[in-house]
Write a structure and sequence with these properties.
Helix content is 67%, strand content 0%. The longest helix is centred in the N-terminal third of the chain and has 18 residues. It is globular, with a radius of gyration of 16 Å. The termini are far apart.
Length: 141
């Protein structure tokens, strides 16, 4: 007799997982413009995008798609609203995640990113330091 364990999950958990799978599929197949449009329609999806960014197991193709979306969102209120979360990611264990977070903090165009980026100037990895330096320069610091 089959048991439907998925029925015991709260609805929000299923929806979050569904969003994660959908965004991952779109990003990994070169459909970043679709994700950008969805984020503009439903800003709550930004947390899903940043969760993918913060997962070291996220595929390179998805990471490239995330970069395209973030560049589309450069200077937007949506990106600025997530500076604190990007700041947390700038302290992640994974070097690539730290470097990406620094780059996206620079794309925000918001001075609230400065303390996070200044901290990254002391990172143990040279790449992270360089990205943080470039991001600070883009903020005219």
């Amino acid at each position: 007799m089959a048991t439907n364990h998925w029925r015991t999950f709260p609805r929000w958990m299923l929806e979050e997982h569904e969003n994660d799978l959908r965004l991952n599929a779109q990003l990994s197949t070169g459909r970043a413009a679709e994700v950008t449009a969805q984020l503009q329609h439903d800003p709550t999806l930004m947390r899903v995008l940043l969760t993918l960014l913060g997962n070291p197991n996220t595929a390179l193709s998805t990471r490239i798609g995330i970069g395209v979306v973030m560049e589309d969102l450069a200077g937007s209120d949506l990106l600025k609203q997530h500076i604190a979360l990007l700041g947390q990611l700038s302290q992640h264990q994974d070097i690539s995640i730290r470097a990406d977070a620094c780059y996206y903090l620079g794309l925000s165009g918001d001075r609230r990113a400065i303390p996070f980026l200044q901290t990254c100037l002391q990172d143990r990895d040279l790449e992270v330091q360089e990205v943080a330096t470039d991001a600070l320069q883009s903020l005219n610091i």
